[in-house]
Amino acid sequence: MNAALVGVTGYSGMVLYQLLQQHPEVAAIRLFGHPDNSQVQPLVEAVPNFIGDQTLIEPLDPAVIMAECDVIFFATSAGVTTELATPFIAANFPVIDLSGDYRLLDPTTFTKWYHKPAPAVSALQQSHYGLAEFANAAGHSYIANPGCYATATLLGLAPLVQQHLIDPTSIIVDAKSGTSGAGKKLATSTHFSQTDENLQLYKVNRHQHIPEIMQQLKIWDDNVPAIQFTTTLLPIVRGIMDTIYAKSEATAEQLQAAFTATYADQPFVRVLPAGQLPTLKEVVGTNFCDLGISYNPVTHTVLVVSVIDNLLKGAAGQAIQNFNQYFGFAATAGLQLAALMP
Ligand SMILES: NC(=O)C1=CN([C@@H]2O[C@H](COP(=O)(O)OP(=O)(O)OC[C@H]3O[C@@H](n4cnc5c(N)ncnc54)[C@H](OP(=O)(O)O)[C@@H]3O)[C@@H](O)[C@H]2O)C=CC1
Ligand SMILES: CC(=O)N[C@@H](CCC(=O)OP(=O)(O)O)C(=O)O
């Protein structure tokens, strides 16, 4: 199996490259950069952390990739796959796209939330929303990997919404992320001086993951009208913690049982025992999503805490889950990772 990767110089691309290097089914990895840059560049020049790695970054050339590789991963900025993926889609060549370009099936919704033209409808119709625990990528050659916040939120809400255990009008998601979620480009809001010892809310009521989450929730229960979704930047590098609230008349035991049953056969979702809530350090460095559930009978409110590593379960790790599903490899192949300790 030969894999092509575009975007190794970005945060999720460099993590994906590390995962592909230790994947048991991957024989060779070819790295590709911008199509308009005709220069071949040594990887270590672009990303000095890869000390001793002799691999070159080549100019993107779809014909070369389709002739010499078996799959292409795009870990590229928003808008890039809309421009560059067309020849692969036309040829049904397997694409795993980490960006948001092909996640929203309705082009009008895409333009409203991303403020740019959507990919062609014919191409969108070929895309598969790869929330790995609830959709199997086998047979789908264009896989749109979910967003990081969307992954943490949907995994935290799935049992409640699918089993109608909450008031569908009452969902509130307080989502928080480390700075690597914003990618490598420096901005005033992600500058060390601004993030260190600080908390910043951003994109309030206009975050691009709101329509992506709603698209999936509506499939599970069309009675969910909207969600209140708020994002906060944390002064850490990796990790997402979602604190999710909803009104419920179920008992604590029913709620815990719903989560345990939903994820019983899922190797990457760990439902903590009743009374325990997860922390970021147990998932950072891994592909796990850890979920903790608590019920307040006084306010009739269920609290779900969902934690992931945004660059793994929220990006590169889930991309490998989709890769494994597409090619029929073991679900955990290439993903046996240990959390960073202490
Ligand atoms: N960071 C995260 O936690 C998550 C990110 N995502 C999504 O994954 C994608 C990558 O994110 P992230 O790694 O954070 O982003 P970065 O900004 O860190 O990296 C973007 C990468 O895309 C490359 N790139 C940009 N334009 C082109 C182009 N025209 N042709 C080829 N390569 C190009 C960049 O190359 P160069 O540096 O040479 O310009 C760089 O390697 C984004 O779409 C993001 O929304 C999804 C889930 C989580
Ligand atoms: C901290 C931070 O800025 N996080 C990013 C997460 C983006 C992401 O997951 O990517 P997509 O654009 O592919 O959905 C944000 O909130 O926009």
Automatic annotation (TrEMBL):
Record-listed E.C. numbers: 1.2.1.38
Keyword NAD in record: no
Keyword field contains Secreted: no
Reactions it catalyzes: N-acetyl-L-glutamate 5-semialdehyde + phosphate + NADP(+) = N-acetyl-L-glutamyl 5-phosphate + NADPH + H(+)
NCBIfam families associated with the record: argC
Family the UniProt entry places it in: Belongs to the NAGSA dehydrogenase family. Type 1 subfamily.
Record function comment: Catalyzes the NADPH-dependent reduction of N-acetyl-5-glutamyl phosphate to yield N-acetyl-L-glutamate 5-semialdehyde.
Protein's name in the database: N-acetyl-gamma-glutamyl-phosphate reductase
Lineage of source species: Bacteria, Bacillati, Bacillota, Bacilli, Lactobacillales
Protein's gene: argC
